[in-house]
Amino acid sequence: MIEKNRHLLRLADWSEERILETVDIAMRLKKEVHNGQFSDRFHGQTIGMFFEKPSLRTITTFQVGIHQLGGAAVLLAPDSIGLGKRESVHDVATCLSRWVNALVVRCFKQELVEKLAEYGNIPVVNALTDDSHPCQAFAFAQTIKEQVGDFKGNTIAFIGDGNNVANSFLVLCAKLGMNFTLACPKGFEQPTSVIDEMQPFFKQHGTQYRVFNDPKEAVKDADILYSDVWVSMGQEGEKDSKQSHFLPFQINDSLLKLAPAHCKVSHCLPAHRGEEITDSVMDNLKVNLSFEEAENRLHAHKAVLWQLMTPTSELGK
Ligand code: CP
Ligand code: NVA
What we know:
GO terms for molecular function: amino acid binding; ornithine carbamoyltransferase activity. The protein is an alpha/beta fold.
């Protein structure tokens, strides 16, 4: 049985209070770094990083953040480890649990992060799977708090694929009292299990989950438009067909004009300029918060680890 609170496997496992506390820790750590102060919280501790998929932001900011807090990051090599092929997931997780204080994992299957958490004895952080991207949601939450002020009552319109990033943002909105709107082509909606699990939170906050197949409908009452690539990592074979479905779902100046005047835009990045978002929106830094959010990945990751790290004296127990 996995102790859900000991890991960040899915944002849905964390309470509203814990999410808000983590955002506050991230904001404090950001302020400290900007003032030239560095905590020694991770002194003597080591975090393993296992990335099966490419990354710029996540792989860099975890390493920089761990370094800023006095710890060390070890990049593990998926090809060399051969998880589940050269050695069982169980044995790899058991060995790693005797060496490192936490494990940050980017992989295809959500099941793999869950198994590493189940078989090991150290916190596991989901750094993106095909199903979810909770770390991105933390950086987005911090950006909203900094740029908009409050969470409650905001409407986030996600224009794109109903997969990993959208799933974690749906959860973030449900838990923090925001409305979540998805605009996607038919057939690219979010799994009903994710929506159903979050309906009680929307009900509790009096907020709404909506889906439109027309992006123009989705942006009308939005406070923030969000964008993600049309073709996610691992889906390269579906590129042509996905691009043809998603063509009308581009965030461009015409779409932005249909949104309220105060509406901002963000993107998890990498952005495929000219596809899901235009240069004109990306380069409009009065509107585009993507780079603020990218900066916040650094502090969000430190805050997540701050909440989770296992003391070295408990490794292997
Ligand atoms: N947004 C995000 O996770 O970026 P990377 O894939 O570069 O890590
Ligand atoms: N949906 C994208 C997110 C990248 C951060 C992907 O999975 O490739």
